[in-house]
TrEMBL record, chain A:
Topological type in the membrane: Multi-pass membrane protein
Biological process according to GO: intracellular protein transmembrane transport; protein targeting; protein transport by the Sec complex
Subcellular location: Cell membrane
Biased composition (Basic residues): 384-395
Protein name: Protein-export membrane protein SecF
Transmembrane segment boundaries: 26-45, 153-171, 178-198, 204-225, 263-283, 289-312
Ranges where the Protein export membrane protein SecD/SecF C-terminal domain occurs: 132-315
Assembly and binders: Forms a complex with SecD. Part of the essential Sec protein translocation apparatus which comprises SecA, SecYEG and auxiliary proteins SecDF. Other proteins may also be involved.
Source organism (scientific name): Actinokineospora fastidiosa
Any one Gene Ontology molecular-function term assigned to this protein's record: protein-transporting ATPase activity
The protein's role, per its UniProt record: Part of the Sec protein translocase complex. Interacts with the SecYEG preprotein conducting channel. SecDF uses the proton motive force (PMF) to complete protein translocation after the ATP-dependent function of SecA.
Family annotation (Pfam families): Sec_GG, SecD_SecF_C
Family: Belongs to the SecD/SecF family. SecF subfamily.
TrEMBL record, chain B:
Disordered, as annotated region: 125-193
Transmembrane regions: 12-30, 400-420, 427-451, 457-478, 506-525, 531-557
SecDF P1 head subdomain domain: residues covered: 279-380
Membrane topology: Multi-pass membrane protein
Protein name per Swiss-Prot or TrEMBL: Protein translocase subunit SecD
Location of the Protein translocase subunit SecDF P1 domain: 70-121
Organism whose genome encodes this protein: Actinokineospora fastidiosa
UniProt signal peptide: none
UniProt gene name: secD
Gene3D superfamilies per record: 3.30.1360.200, 3.30.70.3220, Multidrug efflux transporter AcrB transmembrane domain
Biased composition (Low complexity): 135-193
Length: 395, 595
């Protein structure tokens, strides 16, 4: 069974019924979505220094006399400036471990005074053995800076959404654009929600990372929809399968690609995350990697389990597709009847002729649609009397 | 473009790619500075980076023009620091100063709007190189001006120097300096003071002199207390005055070490902005912060423009008292140790002060410039330091290494996965990724030279994340290939068909990805741009590699008997599946299969 599932995944022959079970998916997504919104509204975010404004001073955590104690650094800070730092911690590991002091915003004078005092009393030593005041890094951010980055980012988000809607509507069609945007919206909210729930620190780098998820999320959706589009070409003239079934097949066919892509994209990000946290402690790398990892997971899940089902539901609002679905059901009922009849009696020739005609028509449509028929032998097989029931696997 | 479903000539594509690589590397090796490393950002190489955000009172975005002017002014200030490799660039409404290396700390204060102070003029002499200097000294503008009027010296050189021709130069002015210079009778000349100035001149001439040393020497000489009469009645020292004036070089482009370091409580020897006059100024009696507003208006009584100055209540009080007791003397508006304007006080001034521009008045632009200087200091906009960081070279190096290691690990993981999953095709993926990296590196170096693109930590992260997107183009192609093989085609006949269909998907997916990067790049600020840039760039380069390398290589492999062996190509599973389905059809029709 497991083997079967893997084989199905690998060859993508429609083993997973994702579209059929979409109601269940919607419920799960709604719950997740609401939880995220609730967390964002009620819990808010853990905003970093860049949003509140402040100063960060960082220097190697080792001195000639061995590791430097954070308490000592804190004392020196208090002594030099007459106030308490917001936090003092050791980040990173091994040679590159550093002590990081965070405090409210300091003036350049205060910073240089602090750096002087820290160097005088701690004498930090770089991994290469040098020791000078230039080893002490500092970074000061005004409270409005993070806000500015974020507001610019939001503008970029809006413009991007507008442009990408036009692109998708032109390249695919209206409903596909809508469904892709639903997925995108989901990815953004869920990523933001996870940040809010877990309490990860939000920095401008996080906001940047969040924006680039947009590209990735849509990228994945575009690939799935491309297949859907291909599978449903000329669908209305056929009674072979409904839009939902065609879409399900497309999802299955691109499933392995989605999984591969996500894995391949996640692998470097994981590397980034491990290195970012492990070697450098916290910082741009870790922030970016974390938000990307979260967003990529959300993106893949949504393009498989959310976008396509939403697309199918949107499509089925169109009477043309509803009618076609009815015709498919009718045809299947006919076949069913024919088989039960065939089991009892001889082959209903007139019906068989009708099916032949149908098959010819179908092939003509497919050829006209540019997708050549791949298994012409199927036609012969259907002529065989006493063939086993077909098309039963799906309903 | 490959002819649809036909055979392509892989050799041509590969040759084209080799040509591109050759051209890129020829450019790298034989043009520009020929350095083989991309330009690194401050966070990777160590140094100081300051982002200054323009703030306007109305909250509206500042004009491009004023931003440009500010950028230039800040650039001259940065150059005044005497550090090499410093850069000042505009980024949206921000001015970003980057100073590599260890001496950039002072760059953090450059964004401050310069200090404007009011000092009495004790002595004024023409600057040496200009024999025709006197004309710029004040011409008392409209004699008709209201009592509340100061007559200024025109601040801008060009227009002003021509208008107030010698006739406009009135006696009181010329006398004023002379009267102050006159009491040279006191012979309390301290030779030490003169020596101090000689020492300062020596240090100025010495290019290797330490900044701090020069500043101390400049203070000792040009701000010596006995340049001005002391409050207890001791007269000024004229010898010292002469010595101090002699050290001044009023030529343009000469950085004044005292900028931002002058003590308002001490006298000051200074040049005027146009380099035509040298002044000995008394201690400051009023700070520029007391100016509440300054505007350029049309002169109601004459021609041209005037500058109308309003003070805060406290300043207004000081100003009216001072002007009442110093009628006929000159008062200097000193900005960053440069005299912007030194009008003669014509009477006690209460309320708004009007500065007229001599005969013909100011031109609109002159008046506008003076008004802005008085209002904002020398920068046309006020700036707030939104981000200021100093990264030690060690931390920078650590970040760079961490970024590279992360990238290396990421690539290695992708390699292993591709090999495991796609076998031979995985090998092609690796080759394509490596070639992709080869072009990316060249392009990085070239962009660093051409448009000053710097690679920062966020940019490295952009590349690492782009590995995924690049690899994905291959995945799309290979999955399509598998589709075709699964349908019973041979590897060889599948390649062209799979390519035609994958190409569409790759193009549209990359288009979306590129769109995201482009929008981010155009609209965002700061680090976001570096990130967006590298992401967008890798997307474009990904297309080049997948079109010119991956597809031709796969096509080549498919033609080789040995290489298309299912055990090598990793397509065995799909072939088995196809075979399985065929055999299944003998007894049963397939469940669901595409037509």
């Amino acid at each position: 069974m497991k083997r079967h599932l893997l084989e199905g995944l690998y060859t993508g022959n429609g083993a997973l019924d994702i579209i059929g079970k979409r109601k269940r998916g919607y419920i799960i997504f709604s719950v997740l979505f609401l939880a995220c919104i609730a967390s964002i509204v009620f819990r808010g975010f853990n905003l970093g220094i860049d949003f509140e404004g402040g100063t960060r001073v960082q220097f190697p955590a080792t001195s000639a006399a061995g590791p430097i104690d954070t308490q000592r650094a804190e004392d020196i800070f208090t002594e030099a400036l007459g106030k308490e730092p917001a936090s003092v911690q050791t980040v990173g590991a091994g040679d590159t471990a550093t002590i990081q002091i965070r405090s409210e915003a300091l003036t350049p004078d205060q910073v240089s005074k602090l750096k002087g005092a820290l160097f005088e009393q701690l004498k930090p030593v770089a991994p290469n053995g040098t020791s000078s005041e230039a080893l002490i890094s500092d970074s000061a951010v005004s409270g409005s800076w993070g806000g500015e980055i974020s507001s610019k980012a939001l503008w970029a988000l809006l413009v991007f959404l507008a442009l990408v809607s036009v692109f998708l509507a032109l390249y695919f069609e209206k409903w596909m654009a809508v469904a892709a945007l639903v997925g995108l919206f989901h990815d953004l909210i869920v990523t933001a929600g996870v940040y809010s729930m877990v309490g990860f620190e939000v920095t401008p780098a996080t906001v940047i990372g969040l924006l680039t998820i947009l590209g990735f999320s849509l990228y994945d959706t575009v690939v799935v929809f491309d297949k859907v589009k291909e599978n449903t070409r000329g669908l209305l003239g056929l009674t072979r399968r409904t839009y939902g079934e065609a879409a399900n097949l497309a999802v299955n066919q691109t499933l392995m690609r989605s999984i591969n892509t996500s894995l391949i994209a996640l692998l470097p990000v994981t590397g980034l995350l491990v290195i970012g946290v492990g070697l450098l402690g916290v910082g741009t790398l870790a922030d970016l990697a974390l938000v990307q990892a979260t967003g990529m997971l959300a993106g893949v899940v949504s393009s498989i389990f959310l976008c396509t089902p939403v697309l199918v539901d949107l499509k089925m609002m169109d009477p043309k597709y509803k009618l076609q679905a009815q015709r498919v059901a009718q045809r299947r009922a006919n076949i069913e009847r024919r088989h039960s009849a065939a089991a009892a009696d001889d082959v209903d020739l007139s019906d068989d002729d009708a099916i032949d005609a149908e098959v010819r028509k179908e092939r003509a449509m497919v050829v006209a649609g540019g997708v050549p028929a791949r298994n012409p032998k199927a036609v012969d097989q259907r002529r065989k009397p006493g063939g086993k029931p077909q098309g039963k696997k799906r309903k | 473009m490959a002819p649809p479903a036909g055979q392509i000539r892989p050799g041509r594509y590969l040759a084209f790619f080799v040509a591109i690589v050759a051209i890129l590397y020829a450019l790298v090796f034989f043009t520009g500075d020929r350095k083989l490393t991309p330009k690194l950002g401050i966070d990777l190489q160590g140094g100081t980076r300051v982002a200054l955000t323009a703030r306007t009172e109305s909250g509206e975005p500042p004009s491009r023009e004023s931003l440009d002017i500010s950028r230039q002014i800040i650039e001259t200030r940065v150059n005044g620091l005497g550090v090499s490799g410093a850069e000042v660039v505009l980024d949206g409404n921000n001015i970003v100063i980057t100073v590599p290396g260890e001496n950039g700390e002072r760059a953090k204060e450059l964004g401050q709007t310069a200090q404007l102070r009011f000092r009495p003029v004790l002595n004024a002499v023409p600057a040496a190189p200009q024999p025709t200097a006197p004309p710029t000294t004040t011409a008392p503008g409209g004699t008709t001006t209201a009592p509340a009027t100061t007559t200024p010296e025109p601040p801008a050189a060009d227009g002003a120097t021509t208008t107030p021709s010698p006739q406009g130069r009135p006696l009181p002015l010329a006398q004023q300096p002379t009267t102050t210079t006159a009491p040279p009778t006191s012979t309390s000349g301290t030779p030490t003071g003169v020596e101090v100035c000689e020492n300062y001149a020596k240090l100025l001439a010495d290019e290797d002199a330490d900044d701090a040393e020069v500043i101390t020497a400049a203070k000792a000489c040009r701000q010596a207390p006995n340049l001005a009469p002391s409050p207890d009645g001791a007269a000024a020292d004229p010898v010292l005055q002469q010595a101090a004036l002699a050290t001044l070089d009023c030529g343009t482009g000469v950085a004044d070490p005292l900028v931002g370091n002058d003590d308002p409580k001490l006298p000051l020897a200074a040049c005027d902005q146009d380099g035509v006059e040298k002044f000995i100024l008394g201690p400051s009696f009023l700070e520029g912060t007391q100016i509440s507003d300054a505007n350029a208006n049309l002169d109601p009584q004459g021609i041209g423009y005037v500058v109308v100055l309003s003070f805060e209540p406290e300043g207004s009080d000081i100003w009216s008292k001072y002007t009442a007791s110093h009628v006929g003397e000159r008062a200097a508006f000193v900005l960053d140790t440069e005299v912007v304007s030194a009008p003669t006080i014509e009477g006690a001034i209460n309320g708004d002060t009007t500065i007229t521009g001599g005969d013909g008045g100011f031109s609109q632009s002159e008046a506008g410039k003076l008004a802005n200087v008085l209002k904002y200091g020398s920068l046309p906009l006020s700036f707030e330091s939104s981000e200021a960081e100093t990264v030690s070279a060690t931390l920078g190096l650590a970040s760079l290494q961490a970024g590279l290691i992360a990238g290396g690990i990421g690539l290695a993981l992708v390699f292993v996965y591709c090999l495991f999953y796609y076998r031979l095709l995985g090998l092609l993926t690796i080759l394509s990724l490596v070639l992709s990296a080869v072009i990316v590196y060249a392009v990085l170096i070239l962009l660093g030279r051409w448009i000053g693109f710097t690679l920062d930590l966020a940019g490295i992260a952009g590349f690492i994340i782009a590995i995924g997107i690049t690899a994905d183009s291959f995945v799309i192609f290979f999955e399509r290939l598998k589709d075709e093989v699964r349908d019973g085609r041979t590897f060889r006949s599948s390649v062209p068909r799979a390519w035609v269909r994958a190409r569409r998907t790759i193009l549209s997916a990359d288009a979306v990805s590129f769109l995201a990067a482009a929008v981010l790049y155009l609209l965002a600020v700061g680090q976001v741009r570096g990130f967006a840039f590298t992401l967008g760039m890798s997307t474009v380069l990904d297309l080049i590699v997948v079109f010119l390398v991956t597809h031709p290589l796969v096509a080549l492999a498919s033609r080789s008997k040995f290489l298309s062996d299912p055990r090598l190509s990793g397509l065995g599973g799909a072939q088995r599946s196809a075979a399985l389905q065929r055999s299944a059809r003998v007894g049963a029709t397939p469940a669901v299969k595409e037509v």
